[in-house]
Amino acid sequence: MSGKIGMISLGCPKNQVDAELMLSKLSAAGFDVVDDIDAAELVIINTCAFIEDAKKEAIDSILNTASLKEDGVIQKIVVTGCLSERYRQELVQEFPEVDAVVGIGANADIAEVCARVLSGENVNTFPEKELMPLEGERMLTTPEWWAYLKIADGCSNRCSYCVIPSIRGDFRSRSMESILDEARTLADGGVKELVLIAQDTTRYGEDNYGSLMLPQLLEKLCEIDSLKRIRLLYCYPDRVTDELIKVMASNEKIVHYMDLPLQHASGRILKAMNRSGDAQSLSALIEKLRAAMPDIVLRTTFITGFPGETEEDFEILDRFIQDTKFDRLGCFSYSREEGTPAAGFENQVDKQTADSRADHIMEKQYEIFLHKNEEYIGKTYPVIVEGYDPYTDTYFGRGYMDAPEIDNRMYFTCGYKLNDGDEVEVEVFDMNEYDLIGEVV
After folding, report:
1. Which end of the chain is more exposed for a tag (fewer CB within 10 A), N or C?
2. Which CATH number do you get for residue 431?
3. What pTM was computed for the model?
4. pLDDT band at 420 (very low <50, low <70, confident <90, very high)
């Protein structure tokens, strides 16, 4: 097979790993994978469809790529990912300029799909979503010193606002052996930090091992000598067990950072979301985490304007956030997604109110964040160098406090030349709103 192929991958890190698996398959089949879309004959758009903003971004990408095709810059367009899995026939009908619309179950056959498209065929195929590969050779799109490691896919939580189960299917864990093999391969290739991901990372192993196996997986990963950091994203609060906390606290390679999407703090709203807990139980979990790891950085997300959210519910959420003082926080107004139970709920909250509540949360969080950043001043942290900024004559990188592509950076000076991927000790002496400023010691 021959031809130049470019890819636009949108959405979450799980989607990014899917893209890396497809890119590797294309390269192995003989295609020339190019970074510059304008240099490609065929462009694959790996889409997201989680919320309204993601759908708009995906559609804008399709339209922009279609313009390149119309201008003769590229020849063919293939759309895959969550949008094509969710809106199969709609995409086929609405975008005749697209040469292939394929579901996620066709990811394993992406090279064949591209070959057929380049030969002049139109391809619309939607195999069972469970056929989407969870493992295999990857063409990394992250820097060589860190990588995502997807340990499972799909979701069985059935939150009432969420379309993921209908797009991705039920939760499916990879085998521990395959994850460890991939981790060793990544580490041998120079990866120092692994970021563990899944739709529900803490559920790992429940389906194929009969129990929650994330603690055991983490302990095995810590045995890989060349790995420096292991980071956890997408941890469902119900499954943050005492065993997991103990493993995190007792293994220095597991950074004291947890992404814990809580979504709300009102017990009434959480129940309507088909989630459990309330402000009291969530506070107890956070107190337990902070007691075991006083330096833990907690990232979370919340939704405002969920159907039926009253002023009292919002005040519970607001008070919970002010009392808890999360290190990293995102807040989004509710997105009414067709096909979800919540879309049919009564008492839908108007968008202006939902947006106003989200803005209020983020304004308050900004003040909390500044106070949190001040606490780092005067302390020294190991930092992985990620680049050099010639305008400020400083290097930049991340400490354990910040996840790649999500959080903030630390800028620092050094009396000698550093290379990307080096690990140095940086003393923080100042801050510039979101970013910390320091020097190598």
Report:
1. C
2. 2.40.50.140
3. 0.94
4. very high
